[in-house]
Design a protein that fits this description.
The protein is α/β, with parallel strands linked by helices. It has helices at residues 26-41, 56-67, 73-97, 129-136, 163-173, 207-215, 223-232, 256-259, 286-296, 325-339, 365-376, 400-410; strands at 13-18, 45-50, 102-105, 112-114, 123-126, 140-144, 147-149, 155-157, 178-183, 204-206, 236-240, 249-252, 265-281, 301-306, 313-320, 343-356, 383-387, 390-396. The longest helix has 25 residues, at 73-97. It binds aspartic acid and magnesium ion.
């Protein structure tokens, strides 16, 4: 990412992001303006990224589908990016009303260049020239989140929840002192508080741990925002817009010395589906033959397990999002004659529960404790997958909530 340096010493530069619920009404926007104005008056340079107001994005999607059930992706992105433009202009007006000089910028105006993959574009580069100029002029810069512009000057969006990624990428490009993500919850919890009432917000968490939590079910942060934060070493504070007394959670480089050897959080997914291809001939290239067509059909495959083969036949099992199951089965059924497997079976009603924490890797005790806890609560484990800092069990969908609660208690996460 390009970066124009300010040269000015000791100026605090802050990127803040406010989610849809934080800018849901005119009053909400005025409140956000008050908070931004306060920081600006203290002398901080402020860049503020906003999401669309409330459920605007969902409403726009619904509207598009009512017109055309398969809307053109390019037009869809142009439509959806307007939501963030509305909130950015209104916040600028609210700051103006408080006597604070501000300017709203679309993603394109802010210099956010992306590839041309509509609906889930990736940021390629940020030309911060315009933003630097506005900051140097003393203005608060308000950037419409979740959007950019392709090489061909087509508007793109970064995918649902993408304003987080805008904020962290801007913090990296502008070499901001801090990046603050304001939302309607007081931080990253040890588990989903709707499932576990004893869950509590973490004071801090490492990028890797946060990525594992985000990709296995904790939906507070856009996973790609955490990736960008990790690459550019941007500390990210996730905090509540509404509860100023809550300190929030700092996502940053891990401090293993203090937090090692601990499960940090329990993530879960309520619904996933499983596909098993039975009696697959065990020959080189067979996995590629199965998974390449799945990738081409944009089926995103999660856990994969291949059993040890018996008499040169093996079983291959993988999980997918329930919405992708019909497409996955279509692909596999079409492949059956070619790969010569015996049969395909699927199960739609599964979920996952994961324990996450650095320091688990070196210690087999965590896996044993997890499995014992699930057994004690009569939860059958369907599949197991692990990374260095995560253990995930696939279980029946109906047992996910019980499993999360049991594990939260077993690993004593209610204690600070
Ligand atoms: N407004 C978009 C969405 O609802 C992007 C965002 O909120 O970050 O997904
Ligand atoms: Mg939103």
């Amino acid at each position: 990412m390009t970066n124009a340096t300010t040269g000015a010493a000791r100026i605090i530069r802050t990127v803040q992001k406010y989610g849809g619920s934080s800018v849901a009404t005119a009053d909400h926007i005025k409140r956000v303006a008050g908070r931004v104005a306060e920081r600006r008056r203290k002398g901080e340079q402020m860049v503020v990224v906003v999401s669309a107001m409330g459920d605007t994005t969902d409403d726009l999607i619904e509207l598009a589908n009512a017109i055309n059930p398969t809307p053109n992706q390019r037009e869809m992105d142009v439509l959806l990016h307007t939501g963030e433009i509305v909130s950015s202009t209104l916040l600028s007006m609210a700051l103006d009303a408080l006597g604070v000089d501000a300017v709203s910028l679309t993603g394109a105006q802010a210099g956010i260049k992306t590839d041309a993959v509509y609906g889930r574009a990736r940021i390629a580069d940020i030309d911060a020239t315009r933003m630097e100029r506005e900051l140097a002029a003393g203005r608060v810069v308000i950037v419409a989140g979740f959007q950019g512009i392709s090489e061909d000057f087509d508007v793109t969006t970064l995918g649902r929840g993408g304003s987080d990624t805008t904020a962290v990428a801007l913090a990296a490009a502008l070499k901001a002192t801090t990046c603050e993500i304001y939302t309607d919850v007081p931080g990253i919890f040890t588990a989903d508080p709707r499932v576990v009432p004893e869950a509590r917000p973490l004071r801090d968490i490492g990028y890797e741990e946060m990525l594992e939590l985000a990709s296995t079910g904790a939906r507070v942060m856009h996973a790609r925002a955490v990736e960008v934060g990790a690459i550019y070493d941007v500390p990210i504070l996730v905090a509540s817009t509404f509860d100023a007394s809550a300190p929030g959670t700092l996502i940053h480089r891990e401090m293993t010395m203090e937090q090692g050897n601990k499960v940090r959080g329990i993530a879960h997914q309520d619904k996933i589906a499983k596909v098993t291809v039975r009696g697959v001939p065990d020959r080189p290239g067979i996995a590629a033959q199965i998974f390449e067509p799945l990738a081409e059909a944009h089926v995103s495959v999660d856990t994969i397990v291949q059993n040890a083969s018996v008499e040169r036949l093996t079983d291959l099992t993988f999980t997918v999002a329930p919405g992708d199951l019909p497409r996955a089965l279509e692909v596999i059924n079409a492949l059956m004659p070619k790969i010569g497997a015996r049969e395909v079976v699927s199960a739609p009603d599964l979920g996952t529960v994961s324990i996450v924490g650095t320091g688990m890797a070196s210690s087999p005790g965590y896996a044993a404790r997890m499995f014992r806890t699930l057994f004690d609560h009569n939860v059958n484990i369907d599949m197991i997958s692990t990374s260095d800092i995560r253990i995930t069990c696939v279980v029946g969908s109906a047992q996910v909530a019980d499993a999360v609660r049991a594990l939260h208690a077993a690993f004593e996460l209610e204690r600070g």
